[in-house]
Predict the structure.
Amino acid sequence: MEANNNVVLMVANTAWSLFKFRRGLIKHLIGSGYEIILLAPADEYVPRLEQIGAKFVSLEHLVAKGINPFKDVFLIRELVSHYRSIRPGLIFHYTIKPNVYGSIAARIAGIPSVSVITGLGYTFINNDLVSKIGRMVYKFALRYTDEAWFLNSDDMEVFLSRNIIPRGKARLLSTGEGIDAEEEFNPTNYTVDKWQGLNFNFIGRLLFDKGVEEYIQAAREVKATHPDVHFHLLGYINVNNPSAIGEDTVKGWVKEGLVTYHGSVDDVKPFILSSSCVVLPSYREGMSTILMESAALGLPIITTNIPGCRELVEDKVTGFLCEAKDAKGLAMQMDHFINMSDADRGQMGRLGRIKIERQFGLKKVFEIYSQIITRYVKAFR
């Protein structure tokens, strides 16, 4: 059976992640004449994806939590069935399970695929039994992918040094997922009132791996000498993640008067623009989207000197860097920011936006995807 060369599949563990991180790419590819079909467990973001012109197929056997080869064999069978019936020109896999089982299914179906490693996450940060099994499964499965894309060079080197992927299959996507700095994340397109007083804002999933605990510890230290400085917390409490921070813990921080918790929202732009500075003390990222968004909107950022974060800030120029898991170091950088003049803070934000525009714009991402799709589609005819 011949391939449908104008059809491209994207497979992820949530429809939300496809909308949040790839809607610009999806719209661009549709505008370029490709039919984009998305595979993921259905959620409330499916209508939004369909609204921009993508087709959606629900995956019934993809459960994001845990890796169980005995149960996940049903996911492989489901993917093979879809791949054979759709017969796309190329498949892109995102997140762990699609990367692992999707690569196997694509090889069984005889369709080229690309695994996009969006970050190493719990499986590589930790060294417990579950993480070790996860790395072994990754190594087995990625022999079947045609290419593996990485969002930063450190993550790529981890896979190469552990022989998880051959060097010939590895590719660095140094732009990360990219960002629409011209329109959606252009601060001149919005009018938002700043929150009263100087404030810091953490925006992200509430996980220990994201450095939330260090953020709170730093807030406690800073407020001891600057009680008028405010701290905000915005993000989803993901109880299924082994690194999740519980709701009762967050309520305790709020009761202590350390932070204002805003819950989880679809559109973070008003919350970024209301802030003085966005903080992400993460332990590991692929390429942090929230830092790209914040810098593109003209906000200074404070983050950790780790892969996927340090690439997005020029220390003491567009923001500040501290070491991961170092609450005192984070508090010290916050203190430096507090002691800056308004003019210097404004200049820091402006320079950060210029950096994002030049290095992480969506146009570069579009070019890379278009080149790869064209190459594989021609080879697959």
About this structure: Residues 13 and 40 are 5 Å apart (CA to CA). The chain has two domains: 4-178+361-380, 187-359. The chain has a mean pLDDT of 91.
